[in-house]
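Q: Sequence in, structure out?
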Amino acid sequence: MKRWYRNPTATAILKVDGSKVALDSFPRAIRTIKLIRPHFLPATSLEYITPAEMSELERGASEYGLGVKQLMENAGRGVAEFVNSRYGPGKRVCVVCGGGNNGGDGFVAARYLSARSRVTVILLTTPDKIRTEEARENWRALAATDAVLRVADEASALVARSGALAEAEVIVVAIFGTGLKGQAVNEPYATAISLVNGAKGVKVAVDLPSGLDPATGAASRPSVRADVTLALHLPKVGLRGREEFTGEVVVVPIGIRSKPARGQAP
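A: Exactly. Output:
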């Protein structure tokens, strides 16, 4: 079955047919667009990628104008567009975020979602401990939206603010990204994951279920058990065969060029 991507800044249509994104036949100006509004693809139609390969592609993306800030914007916007298209606007949405760039993706998603839904953001650290300037900038940007912002850097504070999780119809989980590699999940993250898993709302994981090792698929205790995992660019190898944690895996393009062949530069 053929699916189509439309570039919002040009008239060209980028065709996806089977397992390949047919970009090579398009002019370079089209193939290096920074933002794609996707019709989302099931991960079964695409290949998997290792965390190391993904990091290499992200570093290479800066050479054609996609820095960390733009990648974060594309990722968060793609997450928000998926939530709106799958579940519709006007929902009660809770976005649970860590202090890294995965959390930054969540901040961007919350900014877009707040325009059409009732959004609460729970930050599992203090704002001064957000680890990158790009993520800090997107946290600050939420102050200009209608999103309700909650800081819960301790388990007790998180439990006290857990009403937003219990009431949410959609829970977007952006706690850990590809940086988590098999280590134990500490507080307040462990309590956050347990509360997410126990909530009634549909769980949407950003890039991978928090707690799942992106390289090996090993699951920390606890790990998020998502209904849908939105894999950014390509699903990470650790997601393969881990449906009890990932749920449905859907790919969200973020503008990065295709995975290079082994030994080739991106």
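Residues 232 and 252 are 5 Å apart (CA to CA).
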